[in-house]
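Section 3.1: Structural characterization of target chains.
Under the original work plan, the team committed to producing a structural model for every single-chain target entering the pipeline before any wet-lab resources were allocated. The record below documents one such target. The sequence was received from the expression subgroup and is listed exactly as submitted; it comprises 335 residues.
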Amino acid sequence: MSDTVTPVPSTGIGSWPGTDVVDALQIAFAECPELPYLPELPARGNYAGLIGRSTAFLSGLAVDLQPAGWRLTDGSGREHRLAMGTLRSDLDVVEEVAQGYAGSFKIAVAGPWTLAASMERPRGDRVLADSGARRDLGQSLIEGIGQTVAELHRRLPDLDLVVQLDEPLLPAVLAGTVATASGFSKHRSVDETEIGDLYAQLIAALASEDTAAGLVVHSCHRNVPISLLHGAGVRGLSLDLDQLTTADWDALGAAMEQGLALSAGALPTGYGLRPEQVAERVLRPVRALDLGPALSAQLVITPACGLASVDTPVAVRALRTVRQAAEIITEQLVD
């Protein structure tokens, strides 16, 4: 194999079927040996879904689950307490399962703009509607992510941590298409400068020795602001290949020339593609970028989105398929 080609890793996105975190984490280590991750198990309850689980990362803010959804409150409700307790318990499991492991490891949390578009202020309507509330929520999340990363470093100092921000609503925040609580109007778009600045603050917070971690932004939707995110300093983007346009690939090519990594979501959820088909879905567009064999160091192969909607055997096959596809891609990039 050429010295300029490194093995292309594979990993999962985050969500996983079932409620057994020990089993899910053991599968992640077995099927994603180069980049295992902490799976999210939304079947455990509202507190374990994308937003509920992510409230456990907030520092200094109390949250409650109400009929209208998650809301900032004066005191933490039962679901928020469950979210915080479950995150602590999951970190205990990571410490147990990852003993003796040295290498990359990924955790995922909803990004600040998806949280702002999903959570309500104490007096109603989205956090997104108030610049001060957006700032407070963003700073709380930055502090909480830093605390979690620092704790993992203390428990498992040989981990090279990656933080994945799940931002399914970022394109809608930028486009001004997030509905208000009443549903009769839309929130105004947030300025790109504010969005980029918040990511840059998180990246800066993760730059110290105690909180060292790379930042990857994931979205399964169209119109992800590739240039904006790259300009803010994110290490990589995790994108569904089926959502990318020619303009997106142009932006990716320019960013990858400058070192941006791409986690290529090449296996659509529920589709039984063969590894060679998944590999071709990646190789065809990335070869057109003409970045050379060194491109292998900037690629990760993943399912397109989370796997909580399928049963465990199908989810395991998906991880195995993308791992085999990554091996094929590695070999193909030598040619």
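The radius of gyration is 19 Å.
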